[in-house]
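Example A, followed by Example B.
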Amino acid sequence: MPNSPVEQLRQHVIALFLAGVAAAEPGQAVRNVLSVDGGLLKIGLDLQDKSRQRIGGWRKIHLLAFGKAACAMAEAARQIIPPQRLAGSGLAVTTYENIRAIDGIEVIGAGHPLPDNAGLQAGKRVACLAAAARQGELLLVLISGGGSALLPAPVEPITLSEKIAVTALLLASGAGINQINCVRKHLSQLKGGGLARLAAPADLHALILSDVLGDDPSAIASGPTVADDSRFADAVGILSAAKIWEKIPPSVQNHLQQGVRNLQAETPKPGDALFGNTAYTLVGSNIISIEAMLKACAEYPYQARLYSNQLCGEARIAAQNLAAHARNLQTAGLNQPIAIIAGGETTVTLSGNGKGGRNQEMALAFALAAEQNGLSGAWTFLSGGTDGRDGPTDAAGGIADIGTLRRIRQAGLDPQHMLDDHDSYPALQAANDLLMTGATGTNVADLQILLLHPADE
């Protein structure tokens, strides 16, 4: 029996999402830029210009990976680099759900999004590995999303529990990732160029899989290998603007205030001599995944349209704006089905006690906004995290269609009340609308797809 139109749209929207995830496959991202020729290691510097390379005959190569894609990136690098050139076993630090055994690589699991003691110990190991690199050697660093939380290395006398408290307050306040990372940099020994400072005078090269809008290398994993142009005063301003300054531990307040008064060393800034032997290559990003989804639309009966490649702001507001945009397109007259593609990273300012994540919240909010805007015809919306985990849940995100609210209400639930309580997970679960992919081993932020038919279909 053929699938119903609604089921077909669901299959299509999931396939497009998975095409975006596949484009961020971390092992291939490393293989695209790393090669060995005549005993020399060649590192591509630009995906668009293959002639731009960094070439070296380094005596030893120290291999370090951290982030949600650490295992796949480390494994690919180890398969390329001759074993005799590696300085002992490599080190990979990743989330617990992404742990897997790799020959010649020590794999450590740590907490995310909130750091834990395993991450604290991993941070110490990373610092030792970086400091062990000598002049004439290379520290090859493979960075992917999640690296900030996975490697907490708080400056003394700040404790891990105090840093966790600050991170939790920032997350709950709705602060953006760049704001959170600014604070993290000024409480860390590794972030904000700290790792590069430890590795000097050895050479350093980072291969970066970006999960940050705009792909700013100083924001990805809080920029451990690049210069940082933010200052202690910026961190204080962020905490004050978020109205959580009075809630953070006194040790953190004291450290940041000392930094403002130049009594603590700033993060290394642009132009610092220690960056003379460092470089990086952006090997994957949200934009690359968006382009893959746009291209994949050709396999289906949809005209591809880019809505935004830097979607941000409150998840429910972004959903309302997209629903209004879709209704306007229908009102203006669609003559064929379209796929509206977006990517980025929204936020949620918590005020309730519910369970969910920003992608689930966006899916539920879109269903409500579609009803309020009178969006008609066949449509299906998906919002998902490319890492397969949306907030503190086992779902990657959510899917909504014209029947989502009906199914939630039939289960005896009030979708608007649940959205207001940030309780999107059980709402979508009742509608069988959770997006479940499991851990994907990569992370390039979030992807959104709206499949929209003309109003009379």
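Example B, a separate protein, is given below in the same form.
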Amino acid sequence: MTLEYIPKISIDKVYNLLPIDYREHTKPADIKEFDDTSKKELVKKRFYKLKLGESEIIHLTLGKDLKNVFNKTKSFYEECPEYACKPLFIRLTKY
């Protein structure tokens, strides 16, 4: 198995990966990349927060081959919702 790293990605590109119903209520400025990944040129995953309104924040993870992680997180959330964040969506695409 070869590790695949992803380069820095513009906030506009990340925003355009969001489902349309999220884009209708947000703007690119509502997305911020976490310091841990924004300071690095190449990483396995990039992490962002999307601010919805005044108090709600969605954690976004951008990376390759995350379908398995999404499915495992979804299963864990269904069994233990008090201990996990609810996975909201996955977008399978090349970026």
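On Example B: Residues 11-79 form one domain.
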